Amino acid sequence: MKSLSEIDLFRFMERFFYAEALSDILDARGYRNCVVSPHAGIRPLFSAAVCAGRVRTLLNAPGKPKDKNPYQLAFELIDSLRPGDVPLTAWREPQEPGIMGELSAAAMKKRGARGCLVDGYTRDVRKLVAMRFPVFARGASPIDTQGRSAVIAYDCPISLAGTRVVPGQIVFADLNGIVFIPKEIEKEIVEEALKKIRVETRIRSELKAGKSTQEVWDKYGIM
Question: How many structural domains comprise the chain?
Answer without folding.
Answer: 1
